[in-house]
Structures are given as structure tokens and as C-alpha cells.
Write a structure and sequence with these properties.
alpha/beta; Rossmann fold; 7-stranded parallel sheet; 13 helices; elongated; D-3-phosphoglycerate dehydrogenase 2
Length: 438
Amino acid sequence: MADTVKVASVPISRRDSFNARDLRTRHLKPFDSGDIKVLLLENVSPKAVEIFKKAGYQVDYHSKALGKEALIEKIKDVHVVGIRSKTKLTEEVLSHASKLLTIGCFCIGTNQVDLGYAASRGICVFNSPFSNSRSVAELVIAEIILLSRQLGDRSREMHSGVWNKVSKNCYEIRGKTLGIVGYGHIGTQLGVLAESMGMHVIWYDILPVMPIGSSTAADSLEQVLASADFVSLHVPETPETRNMIGARELALMKDGSYLINASRGTVVDIDALAASLNSGHLAGAAVDVYPTEPLANGPGFESPLRNCPNTLLTPHIGGSTEEAQLMIGAEVGTAITKFVNSGASINAVNFAECDLRAIPSTDLTTVRIVNVHQNVPGVLRQINNILANYNVNKQISDSKGDVAYFMADVTVNDPKEISTIYEQVRAIQENIITRVLF
């Protein structure tokens, strides 16, 4: 099984540089935080860089995604990887990551990571599911107005030197009905903004959710499609949502209505949408996400939606605002630092969420054992049998799927006991990763 930690045999009193008199609780960390290497790709927020450098980590920063071969080479020697939506961390790529502890997805989604395989290697994945909600909601409001006034086409014509002053099929959004599919953090914010502009809001979600404002829950997706003037999609990528909006669903929409997709590229059948736009059944569409997207900025984007009438195409920029990126950088960067330094897995995507209260600053003889193991009967008993000979102050254990997570704070009298505990725990057959934090 994979294992990434070695314990140095130095006196405990030299393992932390903090002044116990100045702090109420100890700041846990790996034996030498300067050895923690971080790889950041795709222009991740400078806020994350600041957080990692403040923690003493080594940061390798790249403004673009890497090709597969370059990524495999880079990932061999790092403990943390930070990505956005373009980098694909597949089983093939992750199989080369012998030291990797955690992945940060500095975005909403995590479909670009093989979460199950990552968990099986003891790699904890974090994301930021809520930080860009406002940015996406504002983009959708802007698109609703642009579509209702055909401003995309008018702007393109003006740039081509064509003056085309028309009012036919141009409308105010006041009094129109917005249908929201997926009433989560983005959907609810969008509904509030839409209502403030005089729109009626209906929504559909597979989970029971409390309505906000004057919005109304629909009984089915079909009801939303048939009733709304504008339909906006805000659902995750799952097998159930793949091609959720196809030719059948588009035909159910009102003549002259509009479709907006700022969720996932696989949710809409792009060919069917193009056909519906070109036939005139839909009056327009705004699309920010696509089934396949370029790895880098520049020419080469191809889509059946290009040149469709009254169609706004944007390059996956729903959450691309300075405010959103700052909040994402802070949220994911902080979660990763806590996981590396203290073992806390709160808000993890593929791990059970565990944490322990801090160790008092005056307690210099307690270390934290962090273990990831296969979720099978008997492992926890083996670990507790090992720790039975020591003073365990507190511990926590939980599981998610095939992987279990365990933390315990153990007081030792002799530094040699740390190595003994570490070696015995990692020798358990079902062990995936064992770490010791000081």
C-alpha cells in the first residue's frame, strides 16, 4: 500500500518552532512543512499561493493546464495538486502520484478527478461548491437580458459595420417566467435576483427544498420546460443528468423561449439544441459549458452552436470573477492546509469528514496519528490494540465507501515510541497511508 511519511528521530521539543507561552493551542504540522511540495495549475488564485507559502510549503505555479505526459512527470514528486476544470486527474495520471496527499479543485465541480481511485490511494479531494454562486447567478441574469433584446446579434452586426435597428421579438424581462432546474446555492440566488427584476420564478429539484421569496416549486422537469419563458440549468454532472435536455425536452419548451446552460457541458445535447435554434423553435440560448473544452486559450473552438441565431457562447467563465476566485482560493487553500497540517477532512468530497479539537499549547508530548485504510471489519480493532499501550487523549474514525479515516492524539514519553506506533500502524495489511503530525 502507498505510504508517504517518515518520522525523524529528534527530541520532541525541537519539532515545533512556536512559543507555547504565546499560543493557547498548538499548530500541528508535518515534521518539516518545508518538504511539502504544491503544484498549482490553470492560474489558480494568488490567494491560494499566499496561503501555501505562509504555511511554509514549496509552490510550483503554472498559469495553464499541462499535457498528460508533463502532468504525470510533475505529479510524481508533489504532495498537493491544485487544479480548476481543464486538468483531468484520471486513474492513469494518479497512479504515478506516489506522494500525493490531497487535491484541490479550485472550482465547483470535481468530475475532472477520479474520486474513487483517489480515495483508494488515500488522496483527499476538496472543492469550493459555493464560493462562485453569486458570480454565476449574475452572469445568468445578464444573459437573460441580452437574449431578450437580441443584443448578441446586434453587437456582432455593428462590429461588422451593419446598422440593424429592430424591436420585433425584443422584450422586457419584467413579467416573464424564469424556470430554474436545480435549486441549490446558485439556483436560489438566481431566483432572488430574477424576482427583484419583476420575473416570476418556478423551479424543480430532485430534493425537497424550501422556496425562497415568491418562487414556486414545480412537480416535474417537464412542467418547468412547458411553463417557463427562460429555462436555466444548474445541476451537477451525473449519469442521470447526462443529456438531460435533448430533442424531446427541447420540443416541450414553449415556442420562442430561451435555454441557458451554465452548469455542465454534458447536460445538454448540443446537436439537438442547435437544431432547435436554427428551426426557430427556441428564440435563443446562452451556453457557458461544453461536452469537450479546449485545454488552453486561443483559436480552435468548434461547436454546432457557432453562428446559431441569438446564441451567446462564453468560454466557461460563469465563476470567473475576481471576487469568486479570491473566495475559492481562500476556501480550498485553507481546507488543504488544515488537512496537511492537522488531518482535518471537513468538507472533503471523497473522504469521511473528521476533525479533532486542538492540542493545548503546553502539551509538547502529544502527537497526532492520521491513518487512511480500507473500510473492512477489524482494522479499527487492530489500530486500537496498537494504541492500547499508550495514553490516547482523543480519537475519531469514520468511513465513506471503501475507505475509512482515523485520527488519534497520543501522548508519548519517549520519542522512540512515535516510530514504534507509526511502523506498527502502517504494517497493518489494509493500511493505505499513515502520517504523524507534531
